[in-house]
Amino acid sequence: MQAFALKIVLTMELLTILNQCHHHRGFVYQHARFGADKKSIEVDVRPRQGSAAVCSGCHRPAPGYDHLPERRFEFIPLWGFLVFLLYRMRRVDCRDCGVVVEQVPWSDGKHQLTRAYMLFLARWARKLSWKETAESFHTSWDKVCDAVESVVTWGLEHRTLASIRAIGVDEIQYAKGHKYLTLVYQIDPGFTRLLWVGKERTLESFQGFFTVIGEQLASQIEFVCSDMWQPYLEVIRQKCSQALHILDRFHIVAKMNKALDEVRAAESRKMAQDGHPPLLKKSRWCVLKRKQNLTSQQKFRLRDLLRYNLQTVRAYLLKEDFQQFWEYHSPTWAAMFLDFWCYQTMRSRIDPMKKIARTLRTHRALLLNYFKARKQFSSGVIEGLNNKAKVTMRRSYGFRTFRILELALYRSLGKLPEPELTHEFF
Ligand SMILES: [Zn+2]
């Protein structure tokens, strides 16, 4: 008797709730019951009497043809129970499209998951890793991936790309063995987002971005920030010649730190070989970190180190000296500083630093554009986006294939629109 009463309550209340939050014209919820395993709830869905099926080809009502076998559409789980909507899809005999399956509002027809459940999972997948999302809702990683893919695809189709003033292009390593992605960001003041993910960091991958936005939009871009990667420079010259091209400060600082680290490692090795005391041991962070970020112990180490006439010390001083470059306001003064710095560095007899100086000389004009743009595009913007992208990728999205990373990156950085539901489930 009790079980029977529970069943009635389940049916009544659940249908009321469903009608409240997931109501679709032309369809009614009929029965709700526990599945045979008692771990799921099944809800029957029927067409409302007298309402015609809609053709999935042309989205217009069409006369019915026949019924397909019952399908289970997975809905948002409730109190630890999986919830399925059970429905026999109709086929219609459409005048224009022939015999095709009907279109139903809760599903795109391709997925077993309902639209509401996909959006629900995709939203959680932004807060948790995909694995954690799957575990939290007793579903599989693949279904979470499907959900994200569907929401991202919708978002890419419905996003607006009008009026992009400034873009930044960035490369990011995503696997061992030099596998890179090309990321293009919109970096307008006050509005930043990821616009494009390209495989590799070739001419073609970056050109793909310009194919997507088209010539009209490309011709309106006023500023482009990039690093010194040759293929990017090339594409920017071809596709965006009207824009002011700025070399990004963040990438130059990173390059300089890399050179300094090379000098330090080589010198440390050599000192050990020659039997000198290990002066440079544990000095890595002392020389790579900005001075103000050092711990007090590292400050002591650095002060100690600076007493020696080591290559590492001289390279460190050159690097620190270069920070001044970014402080200038006038391009003329900045240019004078740059030339003098390069001249000094070329005489330092420290090869990795000389290499940097040569690169900076080659790209002198682009470096000075930073001052022409009046520093509107600080390194902070691209650096921040780059960090977010790295965090997104680190959150272990299972298989690190290009497609998975692409989806994850668009999902977390693309600011894509989402399909609208009549009820906020999340
Ligand atoms: Zn049709």
Descriptive labels:
12 strands, five-stranded mixed β-sheet, binds zinc ion, alpha/beta, 426 residues
Q: Could you characterize what this model shows?
A:
It is elongated and about 90 Å long. The protein is 47% helix and 21% strand. With 426 residues, it is of the alpha/beta class. It has 15 helices and 12 strands. Helix 11 runs antiparallel to helix 12 (351-362), helix 11 packs antiparallel against helix 13 and helix 14 packs across helix 15. The mean pLDDT is 87. The strands form 3 sheets. Strands 1, 2, 5, 6 and 7 form a 5-stranded mixed β-sheet that branches. Strands 10-9-8-11-12 form a 5-stranded mixed β-sheet, with helices on both faces. A hairpin with a 2-residue loop joins strand 9 (179-188) and strand 10 (191-199). The chain binds zinc ion.
Query: Mean pLDDT, as a whole number?
Result: 87
Q: Structural class, from helix and strand content?
A: alpha/beta
What is the string of SSEs from the N terminus onward? HEEEEEEEHHHEEEHEHEHHHHHHHHH
Q: Assess the beta-strand content as a share of residues.
A: 15-25%
Helix content: 40-55%
First CA to last CA: what distance?
A: 36 Å
Q: Unreliable stretches, pLDDT < 50, 5 or more residues?
A: none
Number of helices: 15
The kinds of small molecule bound in this structure are: zinc ion
User: Radius of gyration from the CA trace?
Assistant: 30 Å
Q: Which shape, going by the Cα principal axes?
A: elongated
**Biggest β-sheet, characterized?**
5 strands, mixed
Count of DSSP E strands? 12
